[in-house]
Write a structure and sequence with these properties.
The complex is a heterodimer of chains A (629) and B (239). With 629 residues, chain A is α+β, with helices and mostly antiparallel strands. Chain A is built from 13 helices and 34 strands. In chain A, the strands form 7 sheets. In chain A, strands 5-4-10-2-1-12-15-14 form an 8-stranded mixed sheet. In chain A, strands 19, 20, 21, 22, 23, 24 and 25 form a 7-stranded mixed sheet that branches. A 4-stranded mixed sheet of chain A has the order 6-32-33-7. Chain B has 239 residues and is an all-beta fold. Chain B has a 7-stranded antiparallel sheet with strand order 8-7-6-5-4-3-18, with no helix packed on it. In chain B, strands 1-2-17-16-15-14 form a 6-stranded mixed sheet. A 5-stranded antiparallel sheet of chain B has the order 9-10-11-12-13, with no helix packed on it. Classes of the chains: A alpha+beta (629), B mainly beta (239).
Chain lengths: 629, 239
């Protein structure tokens, strides 16, 4: 027998020679540009792929491909209109969806393009997001997965925070002892610079091999210095943003009813994790808090008839009760929620609860209601009516089968929020994490007030709670472009006394804070305002009266088009170069909704948004012109 | 300022920058036959930016149509229209439409002024408003010709000389200084020029961000592409 040596099929005919991630954060607003450059070494044309992941809280703002000097630029278009225009392409299946759900925090953006022999291609993706303060810190997450060691590999982050930077921590799950010293971090009072740029050899998994160790999450966590009183106001280019999270406020006691789903679908792992999380949460309750436990399937069972003070003895009894919750029956969410609301109302009426305290319900469920009142709008209406705007509802949706939009609306209608808990070994940690985020209210009914004649297009300026470790953000436009100072007032209900501060906000001189660098700040504050406005309009488009929803949707769409954000209402259309046979296939970048992400997970990563579009370019008449650049 | 010459028949565009001392007045369009004249005065940044490059922009345009007796003085501050001895002042903070026998004006608040001069030319002037506390930039203007086909063959000026097209060939594409911007050789007006593929921005649809228009960039203030030298287009007054 003759030994035949198989020719390697993995021959690297595509050389990715540059991967760079460049992130600039100014006043929590992060602008990230991912650039990848590749060369087709082969003597024939071939498909080159560009796949990156971006945080799901980010909006894509730009995408371009440059192939041999020709630039193909993405254009943001109204999704629904575009869909109609591209129907022909849809029916002939000529396009591909570009954005897929990827894990809990990320979305995957992918595109492929046919490149001629010996040709270069440069892909540039830009996205923006407002970093949210959670548990006392902001997080910048960059996921990198180059398929091979890359000549130029660079992650560079510059953080500009005029309030001053309290700390910066960096870690990555691929950092070995050898790579660790390559993370360069320079932190001065108001600026941080973090860079990571391993050489080709340092990226190799083993000497001489073509595998790379660079694969995973590069995470930067930081916080800013917090001022007492008003908070911090940044005025730039006629727009302002107000960050409010004063330090050292005493927490407001809470009265929390845990409404726990113990229906049959929770059996096994989920029930076990729920019990574990509840045990941990109970330990975190403060002695001045009150709590109750309502377990439900098709029947409702309460641990005690009214709320109980969180003393050591009560907590250990509750813990014993929790360890005996077992799954059975169907899911009667309506009656369980009604029972929880009634307990809070009755205890309030009987003055069993502290006057200055917050009432909240924390619903934990994994499925669709199928017992009792099963109509979702009816349940939402019942809960809304019963709470009367006097309590906050938080919902934890467990797993992929939960009806997330139902929980999302129910929470929003009652001052709260919903969170999906992903099935996995860390579900307990996720449950606890969410609870930690919302369990320490510092102020209630927070109002941030600005002079009517000086500002317009304000984002939401009333907040039901300020939680410990979070931050309230309000942005708006100054109607008077010449205004350098304006009066700001913050009002909120604190634990022992009301919080009320007034003060004058003034524009900081960026030239002085960042000499020689202020050039880069441009319209950051305006885009932050636009991002926040769109997010809030998208939220509003889910709740309220029909015409209000339509109005919010229309406004969000207008702004997304104006500021070129890929949101659930818009798509980015990119025209790929014509292939050799002359066909032209447009590409689409969409923004997934939480429902779509969930669907994607249910389909075990087989899901591809198959909306297909032809590109439509609204050409302006050609002109000869002169302008600034 | 950056100049862009779009050539739709060739699906291509040419571009160049002209940077001279702030305050210089350039002739953009001159058509002796129809009596049209467009001049523009430049302004510089407030101070030298970190990259050391002083950029200039147009901040004021003087437009005259002798035959129609129309004179426009458009600056970043205000707009003066003189017709048949009558003078009207408009502010960029207005939205206005003026329809006259010889001239139509459409002013969009803080954004653009579209001017149609009867039987001759149509153009739009864009206002780029910059935050007054911006460390470097000031407000500036852009000038876009929308229709020039009625102008005479003798039309000239920095823009006017291209109104009736231009013949050129590009060959020998090669890597440039920056991988994204290859160089090439352009044969134009009997000369060989080293040009670079790049893009400049058209702000008509999106006054804030503009849209990239790929173009062949001619270096050294358009030398070789322009008839004569850019200094030949410097004039002493706006009108």
């Amino acid at each position: 027998a003759r030994s035949l040596q198989k020719r390697s099929t993995n021959e690297l005919t595509v050389e990715v020679y540059s991967v760079t991630v460049d992130c600039t954060v100014t006043s929590r607003f992060a602008h990230t540009v991912m650039t990848s450059k590749a060369l087709n070494r082969a003597n024939r044309s071939q498909e080159i792929f560009f796949e990156v992941e971006l945080p799901k809280t980010a909006f894509i703002t730009n995408f371009s491909m440059e192939i041999d000097g020709e630039v193909y630029v993405g254009e943001v278009k109204e999704k629904e209109k575009a869909k109609k225009q591209y129907e022909k392409a849809v029916s002939s299946g000529q396009t591909a969806g570009l954005v897929k759900a990827s894990g809990r925090k990320m979305e995957k953006f992918s595109v492929s393009v046919n490149i001629a022999a010996k040709s270069n291609v440069t892909f540039v993706l830009t996205y923006e997001e407002l970093l949210q303060r959670k548990l006392g810190q902001y997080e910048i997450l960059t996921r990198v997965k180059p398929k091979q060691p890359v000549q130029e590999f660079k992650i560079v982050t510059n953080i500009y925070e005029p309030q001053g930077i309290a700390f910066v921590n960096t870690h990555a799950n691929f950092l070995t002892n050898e790579l660790l010293p390559l993370v360069e971090k320079t932190v001065t009072d108001k600026k941080a610079h973090i860079s990571f740029s391993p050489t080709l050899e340092q990226q190799r998994k083993c000497q001489g091999c073509d595998e790379t160790i660079i694969e995973g999450d590069f995470i930067i966590k930081y916080d800013v210095n917090r001022a007492q009183g008003l908070g911090d106001i940044h005025i730039v280019n006629g727009y302002f943003v107000h960050f409010f999270a004063p330090p050292d406020l005493p927490r407001v006691p809470k009265n929390v009813v845990f409404v726990i789903d113990r229906s049959g679908s929770m059996s096994g792992h989920k029930m076990h994790q729920t019990r574990e999380a509840l045990q941990a949460i109970l330990k975190d309750l403060h002695e001045e808090d009150h709590f109750a436990l309502v377990a439900f399937d098709n029947s409702i069972e309460v641990w005690r008839e009214s709320l109980t003070k969180a003393t050591k003895e009560n907590l250990s009894e509750a813990s014993r009760y929790v360890s005996n919750i077992h799954s059975r029956g169907s899911t009667n969410i309506n009656d369980a929620m009604m029972r929880g609301v009634r307990m809070l109302i009755e205890d309030r009426e009987e003055k069993k609860l502290p006057e200055r305290s917050i009432d909240m319900i924390l619903l934990l469920t994994d499925g669709n209601p199928d017992g009792g009142k099963a109509s979702l709008p009816v349940i939402q209406k019942n809960v809304r009516t019963a709470t009367g705007g006097n309590m906050t509802v938080f919902c934890l949706g467990f797993g992929n089968d939960v009806d997330y939009p139902f929980l999302d609306v129910m929470s929003r209608e009652n001052k709260g929020l919903a969170r999906r808990i992903f099935e996995g070994s860390d579900a307990t940690v996720q449950l606890q994490g969410f609870y930690e985020e919302v369990s320490s209210p510092l102020l209630l009914e927070v109002d941030l007030r600005y002079p009517d004649n000086a500002v317009d297009f304000l984002t939401t300026n009333h907040f039901n709670q300020l939680f410990n470790g979070s931050e309230i953000v309000v942005a708006g436009r100054l109607t008077d472009n010449d205004l350098d100072n304006f009066l700001v007032e913050v009002y909120g209900q604190g634990f022992e006394e009301d919080f009320n501060v007034q003060g004058q906000a003034s524009a900081v001189d960026w030239d002085v804070i960042y000499p020689g660098e202020e050039y880069i700040f441009g319209d950051f504050t305006e885009r932050l305002w636009a991002y926040l406005t769109i997010q809030q309009l998208l939220d509003k488009s889910k709740t309220g009266a029909t015409d209000e929803k339509a109005n919010a949707t229309a406004k969000a769409l207008d702004m997304a088009l104006l500021y070129s954000f890929v949101t659930p209402l818009t798509s980015m259309v990119v025209t790929k170069p014509k292939t050799e046979d002359g066909t032209e296939s447009p590409l689409i970048a969409d923004k997934l909704t939480e429902e779509q992400r969930q669907l994607a997970e249910r389909m075990s990563h087989r899901y591809v948004p198959t909306r297909a579009h032809y590109p439509v370019m609204n050409y302006l008449p050609p002109t000869h012109f002169v302008d600034g650049d | 300022p950056h100049f862009m010459i779009e050539l739709p028949d060739r699906e291509d565009a040419l571009c160049f920058n002209i940077n001279d001392k702030p305050g210089t007045i350039f002739n953009l369009v001159r058509d002796p036959t129809s009596g049209i004249l467009v001049n523009g005065q430049t302004i510089g940044d407030k101070k030298t930016p970190p990259d050391g490059k002083i950029n200039t922009y147009f901040w004021r345009f003087g437009i005259v149509h002798k035959t129609l007796g129309v004179r426009l003085d458009v600056s970043t501050e205000d707009i003066w229209v003189l017709q048949d001895g009558k003078q009207v002042k408009l502010l960029w903070s207005d939205t206005a439409g003026l329809k006259g026998p010889n001239v139509d004006l459409l002013l969009t608040k803080d954004r653009s002024l579209t001017v149609t001069l009867r039987d001759s030319v149509k153009f739009v002037i864009l206002l780029h408003k910059v935050w007054k506390r911006h460390p470097y930039h000031r407000d500036y203007l852009g000038f876009y010709t929308l229709d020039s086909h009625l102008l005479s063959p003798s039309v000239h000026g920095l823009l006017g000389q291209f109104y009736h097209g231009i013949e050129y060939e590009v060959s020998d594409l090669r890597p440039g200084e920056v991988p994204e911007k290859p160089d090439a050789t352009m044969f134009v007006k009997g000369q060989e020029l080293n040009v670079t593929r790049g893009w400049q921005r058209d702000f008509r649809r999106d006054v804030k961000n503009g849209e990239n228009v790929p173009c062949w960039f001619i270096h050294s203030n358009g030398t070789g592409l322009l008839d004569g030298d850019f200094t030949d287009y410097i004039v002493s007054g706006l009108f």
